Amino acid sequence: MLLQRLSLCSRIPLDPRRHVCRLLTRPLTQAVQTRAHGSSFAHRGELRQAKRIVVKLGSAVVTRGDECGLALGRLASIVEQVAMLQNQGREMMIVTSGAVAFGKQRLRHEILLSQSVRQALHSGHNQLKDMSLPVLEARACAAAGQSGLMALYEAMFTQYSTCTAQVLVTNLDFYDDQKRQNLNSTLQELLRMNIVPIINTNDAVVPPPEPNSDLQGVISIKDNDSLAARLAVEMKADLLIALSDVEGLYNSPPGTDDAKLIDIFYPGDQQSITYGTKSRVGIGGMEAKVKAALWALQGGTSVVIANGTNPKVTGHVITDIVEGKKVGTFFSEIKPAGPSVEQQTEMARNAGRTLASLHPDQRSEIICHLADLLTERKEDILAANKTDMDLAVGAGHLPSAMIKRLSLSPAKLNSLAIGLRQIAVSAQDSVGRVLRRTRVAHNLELEQITVPIGVLLVIFEARPDCLPQVSALSIASGNALLLKGGKEASNTNRVLHQLTQEALSLHGVTQAVQLVSTREEVEDLCRLDKMIDLIIPRGSSQLVRDIQRAAKGIPVLGHSEGICHVYVDADASVDKVIKIVRDSKCDYPAACNAMETLLIHRDILRTPLFDQIIDMLRTERVKIHAGPRFASYLTFSPSEAKSLRTEYGDLECCMEVVDSMQEAVDHIHKYGSSHTDVIITECEETAEQFLQQLDSACVFWNASSRFADGYRFGLGAEVGISTARIHARGPVGLEGLLTTKWVLRGDGHTAADFSEHGNMKYLHENLPVRQSLAGQRDSN
């Protein structure tokens, strides 16, 4: 309905009562603080501080594909974003195209109507002749379209209680000092009154642009790109957002095979790019946009060029840019010392391919050398870790569990080194292992072999011990690795990464493991779907959930929750129950494999075993939350659980009563997270039914849930625990970082050889696998 009303706005008189603007001056204190103008923002994350923003809408953004009329849905979403930012306390200005297209639509309609009337009068209502439209002059179209375009903007912004004002300018308005001052004063006053100025060149009277007419240090107004840049600098805007019909700036014309989107563009880089053709409408082009952007950047205004026509992102492209997300091309004057994350990923991929081609002994040698370095350089590691610990304790905002994970000790480093040496042994027969051999036909042999996944992105919080573990697993599996650690462990991570690269240098693959130290947001990293093959989050359940939501087309290996159950059966041993329940809950309550729900068979209630369980939990200071059924059995019950699907991550747990093993299984299937679940019983038949029926990644009989760990499983280390239904499940070690490929070796075979007219037959004989590595074939 909104778009239907808006499409008629140029022909329906506006009701002045509905267009009363809030002509209130801005309060002294705003949600967005004003900053001193003079230098542009150095990083995308700083764009959140932008107070005054110019949004330039190119012709391709505003107009429809047929170039006759406006793209109303697209325009409405842009208006909504601008109004939202305006209501946050920012000062928004729009430089818009579209008057010519809107006018062309109106004039064509009027001409067709006039011609049809004349044809009808001359032909006596006979069949109308074919009517051809004359070529419409752009200035006339602009004159006819300006009023309708402005009425459309006014009607749209009114929906958000936002007032607008039209400002038409020409090049002369910037060359004449008095006119320029008047324009500046007018715009300043409009912004002060919380009005969104909508600026456009007065195309009805503007002369054609003169080539090479730029003055010394001043850009001339040739199109709306140069107008937006000039206006942004004149008004000391913090940010210029130029929306076009391409994703941003590419190193070569978009659509070509080698074209790559440039995330950040620096002055001086223009010689390294090749410009393509102009957009389907408008008088500018990417070259004009880059020139205008660099001029604005030099004047102290940050610039982002992005796509305003993609229906997948149009509804949030402007707000995403202001929030600092990686959208389009960001222009920056400050070039970072190190490579970009895209360059790091490319380097890791190239080095990873070399790593995968090394002999297993060489990969094992790298891992063993890293294990040696962890003990030889422990003073350097512990000194860096002390710096991180002091900063974390001084900040005072990290919980005690995270402080514990952040801390390293000589014993921890020794334990890490032992785990790495276990991984080195496993690396001997990992990559290139032949899993299956089949003789398809005579001299046609098929093999299925293990290969690396490709490029892994591991995101971990304040747990520096994760870095050497994951690095060793990636080296052993021949995968390239991108690491993004928590800032709390930045000093420790830097030293550990340096040691990792030192170990990798033994065989010339230093770049296979990269530490992302730039100001990349996790959400931005998760969008690199063409560069990263698998994301592995290591941290809180909230971190995992955030990454699973943010990942765009990249598989995520992990679990969002660790709601682990321990079921105490009627035939359970007293000693085993106390030991297992205590260890499952109290050994490390923050771990994902800690018990969160204790299920008790009904027959155990009001028995000495039940009393011992309660006494032990009280002694360990575990807070009990009663499930609804357990609460019904008690006169004075503990606090009732708000949810039976809760991961407490602390000395708390839920306790509930069930009537049987089957009811326990049903409860776990309904409320669990398919992580790790335990049965305690002396009845083998009951235990086997539990182990068979329960669909979790780890299912234990008479053992603590804390055994769900790669090190305890003998994997050397783990990259995480997965509750996924495909690929790896449970603690993921070396095997979980491998996939397979099929290798077929023939002798000129073709599919036609096996047709009804061919001379060959399929054999499909399974052959013994007698070698460990592909490429080292036996004689059979």
From TrEMBL:
GO terms for biological process: L-proline biosynthetic process. It catalyses: L-glutamate + ATP = L-glutamyl 5-phosphate + ADP; L-glutamate 5-semialdehyde + phosphate + NADP(+) = L-glutamyl 5-phosphate + NADPH + H(+). Its EC number is 2.7.2.11, 1.2.1.41. Residues 51-307 form the Aspartate/glutamate/uridylate kinase domain. Pathway: Amino-acid biosynthesis; L-proline biosynthesis; L-glutamate 5-semialdehyde from L-glutamate: step 1/2; Amino-acid biosynthesis; L-proline biosynthesis; L-glutamate 5-semialdehyde from L-glutamate: step 2/2. One of its GO terms (cellular component) is mitochondrial matrix. Keywords: Amino-acid biosynthesis, ATP-binding, Kinase, Mitochondrion, Multifunctional enzyme, NADP, Nucleotide-binding, Oxidoreductase, Proline biosynthesis, Transferase. It is found in: Mitochondrion matrix. PANTHER family: DELTA-1-PYRROLINE-5-CARBOXYLATE SYNTHASE, GLUTAMATE SEMIALDEHYDE DEHYDROGENASE. Can form homodimers/multimers. Bifunctional enzyme that converts glutamate to glutamate 5-semialdehyde, an intermediate in the biosynthesis of proline, ornithine and arginine. This is Delta-1-pyrroline-5-carboxylate synthase. It comes from Amphiprion percula (Orange clownfish).
